[in-house]
Amino acid sequence: MKALKDVGYRGIILEYALEVLKSEGGNVEKDIETWRQGMIETVQMTAEGDFVGLKWSGLGSAALDLLQQNQPPSPSMDKAIREVCDLASSKGVKLLPAAEETGTKTGIDEWSFNLQKQYNNTPGKVVLYNTYQCYLKATPATLARHLAAARRDGFTLGIKLVRGAYLAAEPRHLTLATKEETDSAYDSIAESLMKRQYGGVLAPLHGIGSEAFPAIDVVLACHNAVSVRKAQALRSEQSARGEPKVPLVYAQLQGMADEVSCELVQAGKAQLDADSEKPDIDVPEVYKCATWGTTGQCLNYLLRRAAENKDAAGRTKESRRAMAGELWRRIRAVAGLA
């Protein structure tokens, strides 16, 4: 974690590599305690301003059943969850629940959303987020409902925006037909959030109009260089015009799209060097997601990530091209040709 921060990343998203397989039975109370201890230790390892990634299904197969049935957590689960939330709140650490598959999505939304009402009700302080998958057709409507509820109830909506990682397991009628449609939906929602304006695919809950946004806090979890550059260009334009900006950070997995992360870090350093005296300078805040656990836990985690990223071969072409360009730049620099 220290080494990543030394590179220039604003902070870390630390995940506890606990996976629950659908076929597992398990001991309910033991499963809850394993999750609780792992999450407490994860939060304790982080510093103020860091994030902790989590999965509600990590509480065990009983939790998975409750999520699938859209039922609230059991009393013992709720107690463990709130202990983790209380510790994170006291440390200034933020919690990022994963979206998981659509079979559990409604339950996950409910668990995360209800916790946001309690822990995100202090102005300027966000503890809990919810993850929105842009490849799902229902996501704009779901997000609109949550935005309206946050405005009505007066709390900050924490939003982690992703394209989605479970395409192979999702019913096809629930997802957008092409990658291009997903890319367009992601960029459109990201723009609406950054401008705090409805438009594009994100319409207000009660129809077309000028319905106001609530306070929001955004994590753009994205390995797509085009989307990241669009977002940062808009942020820079807002800074140049002196417009207020929503709290926003960028996030990528450790070892994936590192060239995208480093491009943001480098841009931030260049801006600081050139305009350090400007009060409205927009330095991108970049976070890397890293994972810890036992060898067995981490292997299960990596197997899931491998299954989620079967299309990664196409993305690695861009990474290889970026690394080759950087290697060539360094060779020229050593030779005095740069």
TrEMBL record:
Transmembrane parts of this sequence: none
Pfam families, alphabetized: Pro_dh
InterPro entries reported in the protein's UniProt record: FAD-linked_oxidoreductase-like, Proline_DH_dom, Proline_oxidase
Enzyme class per UniProt: oxidoreductase
A cellular component annotation (GO) from this entry: mitochondrion
Signal peptide: none
Proline dehydrogenase domain location: 24-317
One GO term (biological process): L-proline catabolic process to L-glutamate
Catalyses which reaction(s): L-proline + a quinone = (S)-1-pyrroline-5-carboxylate + a quinol + H(+)
Keywords: FAD, Flavoprotein, Oxidoreductase, Proline metabolism
E.C. code: 1.5.5.2
GO molecular function: FAD binding; proline dehydrogenase activity
Known cofactor(s): FAD
Task performed by this protein: Converts proline to delta-1-pyrroline-5-carboxylate.
Recorded family membership: Belongs to the proline oxidase family.
Name of the protein this chain belongs to: Proline dehydrogenase
Gene source species: Cryomyces minteri
